[in-house]
Amino acid sequence: MSLELSSLLDASLAIAQNSYAPYSGFKVGAALLLSSGAIVTGTNVENVSYGLTICAERAALVRAVAECGPGLRIRAVAVANLNNAASPPCGACRQMLAEFAEPDAEIVFFADDQVRSMRFAELLPLAFNTNMKA
Ligand SMILES: [Zn+2]
């Protein structure tokens, strides 16, 4: 793994400390590397109405759009958790990331006690897309 991806993974692990997960105890952090070189992090935020919970990846994404504008592109994503669990992005996050991730963006996460790395197009083939952007 490159130093750049290793640093991104470290950033995701660090931000996981800020997770708000009083119901599941599953503390997740995500870090996005944008084409500008900026790194934007996010963490999961749970809610007593469980369905309102937002994942770390989507939290990072909405923060990135707010901070960097709608034209951002994602070059890499790292996801880590403090629970030693496999943590590839969930289906909802994959679809949200599809809007901004380059097809060859590297997605790095833990699975089976190892760091896995995949291209975004491998992680979400055939993402839903209407091609209706104005
Ligand atoms: Zn998710």
Automatic annotation (TrEMBL):
One of its GO terms (cellular component) is cytosol. It catalyses: cytidine + H2O + H(+) = uridine + NH4(+); 2'-deoxycytidine + H2O + H(+) = 2'-deoxyuridine + NH4(+). GO terms for molecular function: cytidine deaminase activity; identical protein binding; zinc ion binding. One of its GO terms (biological process) is nucleobase-containing small molecule metabolic process. Residues 3-131 form the CMP/dCMP-type deaminase domain. Substrate binds at N44, V45, E46, N47, V48, S49, Y50. Keywords: Hydrolase, Metal-binding, Zinc. It is an enzyme of class 3 (hydrolase). Its EC number is 3.5.4.5. The keyword Metal-binding applies. Its cofactor is Zn(2+). Zn(2+) binds at C55, C90, C93. The active site is at E57 (proton donor). Pfam families: dCMP_cyt_deam_1 (PF00383). InterPro entries: APOBEC/CMP_deaminase_Zn-bd, CMP_dCMP_dom, Cyt/Deoxycyt_deaminase, Cyt_deam_tetra, Cytidine_deaminase-like. SUPFAM superfamilies: Cytidine deaminase-like. NCBIfam families: cyt_deam_tetra, PRK05578.1. Belongs to the cytidine and deoxycytidylate deaminase family. This enzyme scavenges exogenous and endogenous cytidine and 2'-deoxycytidine for UMP synthesis. This is Cytidine deaminase. It comes from Occallatibacter riparius.
